[in-house]
Amino acid sequence: MSVDFFGMIYTQKQSEIHPAEGGPIDRDYVRDFALAHENAGFDRILYPLHSTTPDGFLTLAYAASFTKRIHFLLAHRPGFIAPTLAARKLATLDHFTGGRVAVHIISGGDDVDQRRDGDFLDHDERYARTDEYLEIVRRIWTSDAPFDHQGRYYQFEGGYSEVKPVQKPYLPIFFGGSSAAAIQVAGKHADAFALWGENLAQTRDTIARVRAEAAKHGRDIRFSVSFRPILADTEAAAWERAGHILNETRRLRAAQGLGQGAPLQSEGARRLLAAATDGDRADKRLWTAIARETGGRSNSTALVGTPEQVAEALLDYYELGVTTFLIRGFDPLEDAIDYGRKLIPLTRELVAERDARGLRKAG
């Protein structure tokens, strides 16, 4: 087994230590960011989703126009456009990018953010809608004739798409969500299940739950975990950098009147905060202080150390069954370039060596 590395693209420079400045779209930054990931050896770039951010379909189409090899992962919320239309849009994007698109389904874990776009379904209802949505999308991608649908959330007659994905039979489907409702839907539809950077015990537990659900449908699922690697030439320097990032995060949040963030509603956020209950550090290198500071927002846990130390820590997750690592830095563009110098090739080398010795565990 090999490992894949995903990055995360933005439409402007921003992170916990870099407040957004200027307009929401910086075309030059998007171009430079996409090219930096491609040149650093990343396999795919995720464009995330919030209810106030620029459109992902257009952003990834723009980024793809400057790149040749790297693939893309579009975060997409079911419920805001018809699944028939979503299927055509995604298939069209797959063609214009040369078969380089996957879709990351996010049903929504925060009521406030959902309601900005007019969605007032509760948490479990959103996942029930996602189940029906994905059934339709996948059938639109593969059906050679129009069909009718009468469901709980969607009804249409003669649904069909002339354009089919370049990738057969359909685009890879990534899935996010740690609740029981999310895992039930993931077991039916997901090709890959994405976790935030939890500790090893939490990750092992979630992988077991998802595998058990997928087995009910005769399916096998890959796993992705997200981290914010903080690297330096020495371990002491890496922890010093982590301390600076935490202090700067606190300073900027205080200046914005935010303080320590209230926990988000999502199960993923609750699990990140649970990982921080025993202190800022877990396992070998997992650092949870930013997650606690921001209320578990986004993938905010880090692995801290030298590139060699962080690569070894990633191998611990690989042995649990994780084959994709989504890594992004607190200095987004600069860190993406830096990851390509040592961390990505080192991790791939160590995985190959371990596989050659037959040491990979079943999980």
From TrEMBL:
GO MF annotation list: alkanesulfonate monooxygenase activity
InterPro entries assigned to the protein according to its UniProt record, in alphabetical order: Luciferase-like_dom, Luciferase-like_sf, SsuD_RutA_monooxygenase
One Pfam family from the record: Bac_luciferase
GO annotation terms (biological process): alkanesulfonate catabolic process
Domain Luciferase-like span(s) in chain numbering: 8-323
SUPFAM superfamilies associated with the record: Bacterial luciferase-like
UniProtKB keywords: Flavoprotein, FMN, Monooxygenase, Oxidoreductase
The protein, known as: Alkanesulfonate monooxygenase
Source organism per UniProt: Azoarcus indigens
Source species taxonomy: Bacteria, Pseudomonadati, Pseudomonadota, Betaproteobacteria, Rhodocyclales
